[in-house]
Amino acid sequence: MYVALHAHAARGGDSVVQSEQERILRNPKFQELVRTRSGFAWTLAAVMLAIYLGFIFLVAFAHDLMAAKVGGGVTSVGIVLGVVVIVSAFLLTGIYVQRANGRFDELTRDLQKDIA
């Protein structure tokens, strides 16, 4: 459908492509997809920002805590929390990918059926 619309546009049918785009943008399923995906992405971004800011505040204001040794070895709490920050970034990315491959793909398929 995409190729056909653009082939038509090349022959001077820009208004057809534009009206098709407007029809898709007004589609409730498209709006739900955009709203759901954006809301979830912003939520994960806020969680990651809170994790990073929490770590930075601990580094800045809790020197003794961050310098404390773990288990009598040479590793400090700061190193452990730094690893937690990195691992949490991977986990949140995995959560987003799982949602994208599940719910967002489902919404996209529903939208494609609706506009076909």
UniProtKB/TrEMBL annotation:
Keywords: Membrane, Transmembrane, Transmembrane helix
Taxonomic classification: Bacteria, Pseudomonadati, Pseudomonadota, Alphaproteobacteria, Acetobacterales
Superkingdom classification of source: Bacteria
Ranges that cross the membrane: 39-62, 74-97
Signal peptide residue numbers: none
The protein's name: DUF485 domain-containing protein
GO cellular component term, pick one: plasma membrane
InterPro entries given in the database record: DUF485, Inner_membrane_assoc
